[in-house]
Structure formats: C-alpha cells, structure tokens
Fold this sequence. Notes:
InterPro entries: Emycin_Estase, Hydrolase/PRTase-associated, UCP036794_erythomycin. This is Erythromycin esterase-like protein. It is a single chain. By secondary structure, this protein is an alpha/beta fold. It has 2 domains: 269 residues, 3-Layer(aba) Sandwich (EreA/ChaN-like  fold); 110 residues, de novo design (two linked rop proteins). It has 16 helices and 11 strands. The strands form 2 sheets. Strands 1, 2, 3, 4, 5, 6, 7, 8 and 11 form a 9-stranded mixed sheet that branches. α10 runs antiparallel to α11. The chain is globular. It starts with a strand and ends in a 22-residue tail after the last strand. The mean pLDDT is 91.
Amino acid sequence: xxxxxxGAPSDFDPLLERxxxxxxxxxxEATHGSHDYYRLRGQLTQRLIAxxxxxxxxxxxxWPDCDRxxxxxxxxxxxxxxxxxxxxxFERWPTWMWANAEVARFCRWLRAFNGERPEPERVxxxxxxxxxxxxxxxxxxxxxxxxxxGSLDAAQNAYQCFEPYGRRVEEYGAAxxxxxxxxxxxxxxxxxxxxxxxxxxGADAFSAWQNAEVVAGAERYYRxxxxxxxxxxxxxxxxxxxxxxxxxxxxxxxARGVVWAHNTHIGDARATDMAADGMVNLGQLARxxxxxxxxxxxxxxxxxxxxxxxxxxxxxxxxMIVPPAREGSVERRLHELLPERAVLVFxxxxxxxxxxxxxxxxxxxxxxxxxxxSMGNYQPTRLGERYDGFVxxxxxxxxxxLAARGTRGELETYPAGV
Length: 418
C-alpha cells in the first residue's frame, strides 16, 4: 500500500499513475454534502482530463438536467454561457448535490478548457441516473417535434399510459402489482422508435435515445421500488452502468470516462454486506464488464466535520455537525494513523491487515441524523478490496449550495438517500 500526504493537486500523482492506463475512473464521496470531497474530486478530475485525456465526466444526476450543463461546458449553440446558470435550473430535490458552488467552479474550468479544443474533442458532462421520467418524456417530445414528427404517436402513447398517475410514480408502481396497469409495451415501442433515429449521427439524437432509456429504466425502477427489497437498487445501478457504456461507445474508440457518485455506488459491493443482501452496484458492474485493470475505484472519507443534508426526505437542507467516527471504524483507524489529508493506493504485498479485514465504513446520504451515528450510517467494508485508492480528509466541511428554485421531491431511494 502506498500513502501520500495530500497538500496540493500535484500530490495526486500516485492515483494518476494507477489510472494512467484505465478506461474508467470512479471518484466517490462519503456524503453528498461535503465541500472537501467535491473540491478534491474536481482537482483530480481536472488532472485526469488535462494530462491523461479523459473524454467526459458522468455523475449521479439526471440526464436532462446534466445535459443543460453539458451543452454549456461544450459551448453548444443556444446554451448558457455561464455553467452556473445551467446548474441553477436543477429542480429535483436534493438540488444541492449538483447545484453547488464547487461543481460550478469545476464546470467553469471545464468550459474554459474546452474553449481551447476543437468541437469533436470537447469534454462532456452527463447524468447517469434514472429518476427523470417526466423530464425525459418532455425532452423526447421536444426532439421528435423538431426531427421526427411522424414518431410522436409512440411518445404520446407512452405519455398517456403514465398520465393518470401524474407525478405520483409510487401509485403507478403500486397499481402494477395488482392490475394490468403497466406501461412496458408503450415504453418498449417508444424506445425502439427513438433508437432508429439515434442511429443517425448527432448529439441531439443520442440525447433523445438516452432520454428514452431513462423512461424505460424509470418504469422498471418505480415498479421494483414499490415491491420493496434490493431490486430497485439493482435496476438503478444497472441503468447507470448501461448509460456509462453507451457514453463510452458514443465518444468513440479510446474514450475514457470519469464517474462522480457516492461511495455506495462506486465501491465494489462484493467487499461489503451489500452482496449478502442481493445487491450489486456500479463499481462492481464496471469491473465485471471492463476488467479490473481498466477500472479504478477511488473512495473518499473523513473522521469528523460538517455536512449539508436534510433531517427528512424532501425537507430543506441544513448544515449539520458530523461527529467523530466511532470506535472500530475505518475512519477512526485512519484518524489515528493519518491526522492530515492523504492519498492511499491499495495493492502489493505490504498491505496492513486492517485494509483487508472488515471494518465499519461511514456512509451519509442526503437524509442524515447525527444522533443515529451509533446505530447506523456504517457499512462493513474490506477497504482494499472495495476500492483501488482512497482520498482521506481528517476533517471535512460543508459544501456551498446555490440558491435553489422551487424543488420537487421524489420517493426515497434504497438504501436511503445515496
């Protein structure tokens, strides 16, 4: 195991060396609301793009929202000149995950970087997630109305199938358990028509195809979520892995992607208790599909600090105190060994025992109650198997949300808020 003190972006050299030949680098976070994770992740991503030639950034966010950011950072015609303006249009709760000053800063850098490159070589910014059923439906209508009005009937049929449930997707999922209320046939037909048009070259056609894939994934996800258990989680992470693969194919031979998502998605589930519960995740799927040498998984964690989160699903964000990590945890061990920021790269014969033995590893979602620390928020983890590297911040501070527009809440995810 290699340990490097982290004081400047140049100290990421050991991780860059590990990622030099990889096709996919996944960068995690132990919370969705810590400035330090976003800032350090942005610095590392800048180096991966500028020095190693990575092609795009894909995040745990909705495709339509992130597509506005993508258009801004690639200077597409009609797009926002200031990426922050695109981020401020995020409406789905929790907006602070991506509509924050830290992401805005990275996106401004990315737009400036892209400004020095020819259009085909510009680095993209995309969403991997599955939640935007209605937004994706609207994007499909907009695209077909301009490019293929003859296919609008397929979109209209899918829309009319979902329409009786409005935004209450939980009612659609519940109805599908008891009566023939499923919209699978309509969605499959819509997806087939969009795929035909996506065969033509063009960013708009690809985006329409991806929106159709989101509609299909959301239909499966919301049915599975109402049934309970791990299946909705698996549907979601399979959708993210499939989207990542489509992006790699879209960007062409030699394409390389950086992924930003919670540790719970990017750290290999087989090194945790998730596998025993029948769950898979994005990092595991990527390793299986692309090979361990082509995928680098990097976790992030801290001992204490502050975080932006909400006490209940859909409630306003607050800045909360994260108490010191509990005894016997990964974070307590690292606090004792490395009371400053550091980068760890796993592998080799000299790894200490605590890297390969199961220890509790903290995970904070968008919903958080610090008083429950002694009962929850930890997951048994073999750190050196779950990740290829780890970025350690002994103390992490809360991120800086942008001013939010009126937000829409959705159903709570499984596990909660990650």
